[in-house]
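#struct-queue
[09:14] JT: dropping the first one here, sequence first, then the C-alpha cells:
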Amino acid sequence: AAAARRATWRGTMAGFVGSTQRREWLFETQADIDAVRNKAREVYLAKSTSEREPLSPSAEAGFLNLYLALMRKLCTRKDLNPCLTEAKYSQRVYLSAAALFKRFYLKHSVMAVNPKLMSSVAIFVASKVVE
C-alpha cells in the first residue's frame, strides 16, 4: 500500500512538472515577474493608439496596490456586505480575489483594462468560488 501511495505521489509530481500551472504561474525571482509584466506593457503600447502619455511601470504597480487595498476594505466591511458573517469567509474571498486580480494584471496592462472593473469582477468570481 505504501509503494502504491509513493507511485501515485510521484505521478502527481511528474504531472505538475509538465503542467501549465507550473509553466505559467510559478516564477523563480521577482525579475521573472517583472519581465512578464513588462512584456504585457509593451504589447499594450504597441497596440495603443492613445495620445496620452503612458503610465510608468511604477505607476502601474501603484494602481494595482491601491486597488488591492480597496478590495480588502470592500471584502471586510460588513455594512456593505451583510452576508459576510464570518471574518474567515471574507478573508478567503479577499485572498482569492487578490490572486485572480494579480494573475490578470500579470498578463495585461493596467492601461488596457480598468482596475476598478477588474477588482469588482475578481471579488464577484472569488465569492462564487469560495461559496
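[09:21] JT: and here's the second one, same format:
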Amino acid sequence: EKSAWIVVEGRVYDCTPYLEDHPGGASSILLVAGQEATEDFEAVHSKKAWGQLEDYYIGPLRNQSAPSAPVVTPAPQDEGFLKKQAQSLPLIEKIIVSQDTRIFRFGLPSPNARLGLPTGMHMLLKAKVGGATVMRPY
C-alpha cells in the first residue's frame, strides 16, 4: 500500500499519489497494483480519466526475458477466498426480472469456501460481455 504502480498499454504509471482521491477508492487501484491493468482500466474509465492518468506516467515498460512461471499454491479452504486477486466463480442461477434487469447468483469456488469479505469492504465483479470487459463495484 506504500507504492501502487500499474501498467496500461505498455506504459508504467505510479498511482500512489492518487490513492486517497480515486473515486473508486484506493482498493480498486491496489487490486491491480504491480500488474498489467489495461483491460481493467479500459473497462471503467472515461476519456477524462485517461487524460488524468498521464499525470502519473513514469515511462515505458521494458521488455525483459520472462522467468519461468511461478508456482501458484491455492489458499486453504478455511480462509476467505477474497485475496486482492481475481477469482473465478461459477454462475449458479440467472433470473430474468424484466427486459433490462437480471439477477445473477454466483457460487464460491468450493462448498467449503467462505466469502471472507470484511465489514465495510467492497468487491469488484468483472466479466466479458460481447467480447468487451465489464466491471462493476459492489
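[09:30] RK: nice, looked through the second one.
[09:31] RK: Residues 96 and 102 are 5 Å apart (CA to CA).
[09:31] JT: good to know. DSSP finds three helices and seven strands in the chain.
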